[in-house]
Write a structure and sequence with these properties.
This protein is α/β, with parallel strands linked by helices and 282 residues long. It contains 11 helices and 8 strands. Helix content is 41%, strand content 17%.
């Protein structure tokens, strides 16, 4: 049995809203799922199967982060990855407050992992556990050729280019080709919105959000660092680095898996989440 997804626009400050997908019962342990940064990405395209599968035991909350999907967007757009992150994270805090959440488990994919670490820095009282999945955040990380395809997507924003980009997110391209094509088609109407391109171009500059060893040593929260061994978007060395310096981190590497752990190894990823989170008690 899978849990039905409830979708609504949740009002935050300044007349803005976040599009939020939820499963499970409010009052159950809250899992806040933060998606990655790909062009046209939405919370649903990243997390649909996961939150359907985990809604029996947890209150799953998967928002389109500010500036993505069907959420409001900043106007004017902050310039640079760090500036964008600060505005978007503040909007996430407003969402948490609007939903009346006192504690959350953060589940962050790629960019969402970086945002999870920053949230834990700013409001450690809010965060009971962290799950990082293919997360960035290592200082001096050089972009892979596949990540450069993501960054420069809007130089050639076609359906074909989208499919060519997204197929790099999985290891088993034969098994998941149809899934990737479906996700690509789902993203194209969003990609064509001018503010989506504007936000994407504004985000990727020379300055990235990163965390030095001293920064990470202060995030004293139980953390599970998950990475696909064959991830060509974010190198596995980044997760080795995070696991080494986060004081309560465990590292879980999944073989025969690329960047989309939650899609390519959906059942396994959900089981790992259940094992790590348990019943949500401290």
């Amino acid at each position: 049995m899978t849990a039905a997804i409830r979708t609504e626009d949740v009002a935050i400050g300044g007349g803005r809203h976040l599009r939020v997908n939820q499963t499970g019962t409010p009052g159950a342990p809250a899992l806040l799922f933060l998606h990655g940064s790909g062009p046209g990405v939405t919370a649903a395209s990243n997390w649909r199967e996961v939150i359907e599968g985990l809604g029996d035991a947890y209150h799953c909350i998967a928002p389109d982060i500010l500036g993505f999907g069907d959420s409001s967007y900043p106007d004017p757009q902050p310039q640079g990855f760090t500036a964008q992150a600060e505005v978007r994270i503040e909007a996430l805090f407003e969402l948490v407050d609007a939903l009346g959440l006192e504690k959350v488990v953060l589940v962050g994919n790629s960019m969402g992992g970086m945002y999870s670490l920053r949230i834990a820095q700013l409001r450690p009282d809010l965060v009971s556990r962290i799950i990082l999945m293919g997360s960035g955040g290592m200082p001096g990380l050089e972009p892979t050729p596949e990540l450069i395809k993501l960054i420069t997507y809007f130089d050639d924003p076609t359906v074909e280019a989208m499919a060519d980009l997204l197929i790099q997110f999985v290891h088993d391209k034969n098994a998941f080709g149809d899934t990737v094509e479906a996700v690509a088609a789902e993203r194209m109407p969003i990609v064509r919105r001018p503010w989506i391109e504007a936000g994407h171009r504004a985000m990727f500059g020379p300055e990235m959000l990163s965390f030095g060893p001293d920064d990470l040593s202060k995030i004293d929260i139980p953390t599970l660092v998950v990475h696909g061994r064959q991830d060509v978007i974010v190198p596995i060395e980044c997760s080795y680095y995070l696991a080494e310096h986060l004081p309560q981190a465990d590292l879980y590497v999944i073989n025969k898996c690329g960047h989309w752990t939650q899609i390519e190894q959906a059942a396994r990823f959900q089981q790992v989440v259940r094992t790590f989170v348990g019943d949500g008690t401290e």
